[in-house]
Amino acid sequence: MADVTIPPVIHLRGLEKRFGIGDAEHSAIDHINLTIKKGEFVAIMGPSGCGKTTLLNILGLLDRSFDGDYELDGQSVDTISKRKQARIRSQQIGFVFQNFNLVPRLSVIENVALPLIYKGIIRTKRLKIASEILRNFHLNEREYYMPHQLSGGQTQRVAIARALVNEPSIILADEPTGNLDSRASHIIMEELSDLHKRGNTIIMVTHNPRLTTYASRVITMLDGRIDTDTKSHIAPQKNRRHKKPVRKTKRNKK
Ligand SMILES: Nc1ncnc2c1ncn2[C@@H]1O[C@H](COP(=O)(O)OP(=O)(O)OP(=O)(O)O)[C@@H](O)[C@H]1O
Ligand SMILES: [Mg+2]
């Protein structure tokens, strides 16, 4: 398939983000031009402070104050109302951020089912879908635990399950496996890989070069700019050790 036929989901032209004022002013994002097409799995690497999280925040419509142009699905985000941006954030974009807090008074399964409310899915169905994704994350025995009864790594996995449960078409992941051991990291990368194979776009920040083997493109940033941008031809499945059960839900019979 020729690349030109795939529409860009993200198109940045001269994107700049400045922090501070006067002498302390500096550009965390320094005139970035970037096009990401639907279905790409992009890994972003680079030293601490180079602007990775700042970029993800802008891509995820969490930060609206920047210079330059950002087109999301062909529309300049400047022209999208706040209300519509909120809808895009809750239905189309999945954030996998490390300190994504769970709602303390809701059980694990209810936390994971929460984003499905926006899709208008009835409660029993929501819990069924949440239960399926928790099984994929090897957390099915913790469904009715409360968040405070989980270990740090389990909490992180539940937060990631919640970010992915409504199959967002764009997944923004900031060090999704940061605090996890290699087995737990693998479970999460499998889930991201699965979403990628189903045609979703994934942009993942990582410090771990081994995880870039799952990506179809690796971007390195330096001082707010893109330093290198390489397409990867390595099959993402290459490093897999375990075979994951396929989720059989109506959602992926598209
Ligand atoms: N709210 C803010 N106010 C002022 N400066 C900020 C703010 N947020 C980020 N910065 C600065 O912008 C630069 C980029 O920060 P960013 O968090 O994007 O880095 P990063 O690449 O994600 O780093 P890390 O790998 O450590 O997470 C840093 O110099 C940081 O100090
Ligand atoms: Mg960061």
Question: Your description of this structure?
Answer:
The chain contains six helices and ten strands; from the N terminus they run βββαββαβαααβαβββ. The chain has 254 residues and is α/β, with parallel strands linked by helices. The chain has a single domain (3-252), classed as P-loop containing nucleotide triphosphate hydrolases (Rossmann fold, 3-Layer(aba) Sandwich), CATH 3.40.50.300. The strands form two sheets. A six-stranded mixed beta sheet has the order 6-7-8-3-9-10, with helices on both faces. A four-stranded antiparallel beta sheet has the order 2-1-4-5, covered by helices on one side. The model is unreliable at 235-254 (pLDDT under 50). Bound molecules: adenosine-5'-triphosphate (ATP) and magnesium ion (MG). The site of magnesium ion has 3 residues, from helix 1.
Spell out the key features of this protein:
single chain, 254 residues, alpha/beta, Rossmann fold, 6-stranded mixed beta sheet, 4-stranded antiparallel beta sheet, 6 helices, 10 strands, globular, disordered C terminus, binds adenosine-5'-triphosphate, binds magnesium ion
Counting copies of identical and different chains, the oligomeric state is single chain
Strand order of the largest sheet: 6-7-8-3-9-10
Supply the helix-strand structural class: alpha/beta
What's the CATH topology label?
Rossmann fold
End-to-end CA span: 20 Å
Could you tell me which ligands this complex binds, including any ions or cofactors?
adenosine-5'-triphosphate, magnesium ion
CATH class: Alpha Beta
Number of domains: 1
